[in-house]
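Running this now, will post back.
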Amino acid sequence: MAKQVVIVGGGFAGISAAKKLASANFSVTIIDKTNHHLFQPLLYQVATAALSPGDIAMPIRAIFSKQKKGCRQLYPFFCLITYFHPHARQICCVSPPNKKVFSAYLWG
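Update: finished.
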């Protein structure tokens, strides 16, 4: 049985860690408040109409849908974290109300 890891944040570090852990027989839950990864260095080009928003933002689920079939142990979860208790390995979220996530390992 794969060990459960919870990663807080869908930025570059969170996505990179999730990809490596999912392929190393871990069950990974990635928690982020939005459902997309945004490449902010190119945000100014969207503001000047040089790029479309779809060119710098990608849904987190789409990033992991291209993983190998053996690496499908990744579960994105979208919520706003209200409480983080590292010793109890517990994270509480706003949406859904009072949802609690427990994990063997926390990364954030």
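The chain has one domain: 3-80. More later if anyone needs it.
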